[in-house]
Specification:
The complex is a heterodimer.
Chain A: E1 2-13, H1 22-34, E2 37-39, E3 43-54, E4 58-59, E5 66-77, E6 84-93, E7 97-101, E8 108-110, E9 119-122, E10 127-132, E11 135-138, E12 144-154, E13 169-170, E14 190-195, E15 202-203, H2 204-207
Parallel strand pairs in A: 8-14
Antiparallel strand pairs in A: 1-5, 2-3, 2-13, 3-5, 4-5, 6-7, 6-12, 7-8, 9-10, 10-11, 12-14, 12-15
Chain B: E1 2-11, H1 13-40, H2 53-69, H3 77-87, H4 94-103, H5 108-114, H6 118-121, H7 124-137, H8 174-194
Helix pairs in contact in B: 1-2, 1-8, 3-7, 3-8
The chains are: A mainly beta, B mainly alpha.
């Protein structure tokens, strides 16, 4: 579910942070720039793993901060296709299916056509239910949910032909309440699409023995 | 800013959990050092006590996910390494191995979901054996957290120029710091072995 990515960047350390251990100052700079954000075609960046190469810090005229070329490895969240992941159900919707959350990442959808056969949406309770052999199994909000990754989408809202080499976009607003998030699937930069049309997938309580 | 390599290799939940713990401890230590330094300084000379908010949020959520929804708290490094050695005798793909390690399936249904064409590739005994391996290595009693490194205020000379002297081992924490450094070197071994 997590991978390592090697990134090279020129990092700026403000003079007010010169008292810090230099490694820590660089890591803080990386975290404020990459953490909780999506790197297009790479994944959702979480934190730094280590710094592999640190260049000498230079000070340019007009700015008291030091700049250094650093190569570092990032821990990135990027589920592989076909991977089985366990999360919690966030919300149910008629059009978008079920939204699953992993705590640190909540843009996971299981669309209606990838739910198991016999799933129906109940308009009254606003919940999906799976009807199998005349027994209806409920999807509970907040319940433990297992799904298989079917696709991973990177959506770009930039329409220009020339885009900068690597563009950072906010993956998830801080402290955002996911249930009131009105962003559609096309606006979010990194979406994971899961499926549960196999035996063993879905709510965990259905398969407990 | 340039992405040199998109995918250097996968990380299992155990490694991410260790990394999380380590960076939490380092941050706590750094904060303590700065707090104590600040106590001796006049207000206009005090250091900033701050860390980027994003990483605090993400790492906190990640910690909660790994501790509550996965079986990471039942594993130690030896368990994971032994499990990988044992599961190698079955010809699983690398992705399937990682998935079994992360999800730690204890029921046949879960294993059949992870491994495609399970009934064709392995006999029933072999699948039961795989589940026994998971139970043996990955489902032990929850490991108690290692005691967090306590800040020992024996560092000499750190108040003069101010700030951290994390690189020098003038304090009494040499053993604990060595422990942390050792563990970081070994953590990468797990990923390399699995690769």
């Amino acid at each position: 579910m997590f991978i390592l990515s090697l990134v090279k960047d020129k990092l700026r350390v403000d003079p007010s942070r010169f008292d810090l251990n230099y490694d820590m100052a660089l890591e803080n700079c990386i975290h404020s720039k990459y953490s909780n954000k999506v790197l297009p075609n790479v994944g959702f960046c979480i934190c730094v793993h280590d710094l592999t190469e640190k260049g000498d810090p230079y000070i340019y005229p007009g700015d008291g901060a030091s700049y250094s070329d650093v190569k570092f490895r990032l821990v990135v969240f990027r589920p592989g296709i076909g991977e089985v992941i366990r999360g919690k159900v966030l919300s149910c919707d008629h059009r978008t299916g079920i939204k699953v959350s992993l705590g640190f990442f909540t843009d996971i959808y299981v669309p209606p056509h990838l739910l198991p056969e016999g799933s129906e949406f109940d308009d009254g309770t606003n919940l999906w239910t799976w009807v199998y052999q005349d027994v209806s199994y409920e999807y509970k909000i907040g319940g433990s949910f297992t799904f298989k990754v079917s696709n991973v989408q990177f959506n770009s809202s930039y329409t220009d032909v020339e885009t900068p080499k690597v563009v950072l976009k906010r993956g998830q607003a801080l402290m955002d309440n996911p249930r009131h998030n009105s962003k559609s699937m096309e606006d979010t930069p990194f979406v994971v699409i899961g499926r549960t049309n196999e035996s063993g997938l879905g709510m965990d309580e259905w398969w407990e023995q | 800013m340039e992405v040199l390599e998109e995918n250097l290799g996968p990380l299992c939940f155990f490694e991410v959990d260790r990394l999380n713990k380590r960076s939490f401890n380092e941050r706590k230590k750094a904060l303590e050092i700065r707090k104590r330094a600040n106590q001796r300084l006049p207000k206009h000379k005090q250091f900033y006590l701050d860390f980027p908010q994003e990483v605090l949020y993400v790492e906190d959520q990640l910690h909660e996910y790994l501790r509550d929804n996965t079986k990471v708290k039942r594993q130690t490094r030896e368990h994971v390494v032994n499990f990988i050695k044992d599961i190698r005798k079955y010809s699983l793909t690398h992705a399937e191995e990682m998935n079994v390690l992360d999800l730690a399936p204890t029921q046949l249904v879960e294993l059949h979901v992870i491994i495609s064409n399970c009934s064709d590739r392995f006999s029933e005994e072999e699948t039961m054996d795989m589940i026994e391996l998971v139970n043996k290595h990955l489902m032990n009693e929850p490991v108690e957290r290692a005691p967090k490194p306590s800040f020992n205020n024996k560092n000499k000379g750190w108040g003069k120029r101010g700030g951290n002297r994390r690189t020098s081992d003038r304090g009494g924490n040499k053993e604990q710091r060595e422990d942390i450094q050792m563990s970081t070197a070994n953590d990468m071994d797990i990923a390399m072995q699995a690769a």
